[in-house]
Amino acid sequence: MIPYRPSLPLKESYHALYKIYVLKHPDTDEIFYVGQTKNELSERLAGHIRQEGSNTQKIEYDKA
Questions:
Q1: What's the pLDDT at 21?
Q2: Residue 61: enclosing H or E segment and its boundaries?
Q3: Predicted pLDDT at 4
Q4: Model-level pTM?
């Protein structure tokens, strides 16, 4: 262990907490999307409902 000395520069660090989630077909329970977010899950779901993002394959599946 390196002892602390005032001459050593300190570096700021942080940990980002992500939530992993899946979107499943309501009738078959087939998983069709796996994602991650730092937001609340309800906020992220609202984003999926608004069709945000560039994943056109997922958007088309959502619409179907």
A1: 92
A2: helix 56-63
A3: 62
A4: 0.58
Nearest to 18 by CA among 34, 29, 2, 30: 34
Asked if 32 contacts 25 with a C-beta cutoff of 8 angstroms, the reply is: yes
- Please, what sign has the CA dihedral across residues 40, 41, 45, 51? positive
Residue position matching structure tokens 């660090």 = 13
pLDDT averaged per 10 residues, the chain (length 64): 66 79 87 90 85 68 64
Q: What's the confidence (pLDDT) of residue 48?
A: 79
How far CA 38 is from CA of 19, 27, 44, in Å, comes to 6, 28, 9
Half-sphere exposure of 58 (CA within 13 A, CB side): 17
Residue closest to 33 by CA, chosen among 17, 48, 18: 48
